[in-house]
Amino acid sequence: MPLAIVIGVGPKLGSAVARRFAREGLTTGVFSRTIEFAKKLKGEVESEKIQVYSADASSPSSLSASIKQFLSDFAGQRLEVVVYNAAAGFPPGPFLDITLENLERSLDVNVKGAWTTAKEVFPVFLSQQPLPEAPHHRGTYLITGATAMLRGSARFSSFASGNFGKRALAQSLAREFGPQGIHVADVIIDGGIGPEGSTDATKNLDPDAIADTYWHLHKQHASAWTYEVDLRPFTEKF
Questions:
Q1: Would you give the distance in Å from CA 105 to the centre of its chain?
Q2: What is the pLDDT of residues 228-237, one digit of tens each?
Q3: Of 48, 174, 189, 227, which is least packed with CB atoms within 10 Å of its CB?
Q4: What is the average pLDDT value for the chain, to the nearest integer?
Q5: How many helices (H) and strands (E) does the chain have?
Q6: What integer is the mean pLDDT of 102-117?
Q7: pTM, whole model, 2 decimals?
Q8: SUPFAM superfamilies recorded for this chain (predicted)?
Q9: In what order do the strands lie in the sheet with 182-189?
Q10: 3-231: which CATH architecture?
Q11: 182-189 and 50-54 as β-strands: parallel, antiparallel, unpaired?
């Protein structure tokens, strides 16, 4: 049974991505600081396909320990895809009201968390031989970002700093590890995410529709990998 990891699982995108991977037959480890949503998700999907772990993305030791535990629990199974979906930096506010602690938390979750996750899973990817049907692909690492990956808007100083850093990390990892068979991509969510089953595409992105893009990125042929994709409702201004 192939494995997936989704870090940062709440009631919207993280849950949708985990459901999508589980539906494709991957045993999916879902990691969350508060695991109520993850436990609810486990009850909605075939129980063996969703495995719940508590992890604080702002704490490298907590995150590393939880990832190690998942990989130990399913030792011998192939790790296919990892999604780093954790984020911090809200609420926005005037720069002079933002504290150093606000900035540090944004950097801890957005940058340190994504960096720590890569440190844990990339050696696993590199140790795996490519499959015959994907001879140049050892694993996929996808990083969720926001519009703040592209521009620092007024009042978003801490959030933008973390997102710029996360995007820079993704670029560096893609350039170093792409030739070694690890597909790294960041997904820029340019708009609000609606609730599960959202059908009003004029206002918010449907989390299940976003999750389809994550699956597509994972299954791309190595001759045409996407490094970065941005998603938005068709009426969103950009």
A1: 18
A2: 999 999 988 8
A3: 48
A4: 93
A5: 7, 7
A6: 97
A7: 0.95
A8: NAD(P)-binding Rossmann-fold domains (SSF51735)
A9: 50-54, 27-32, 3-7, 79-84, 139-146, 182-189, 228-231
A10: 3-Layer(aba) Sandwich (3.40)
A11: unpaired
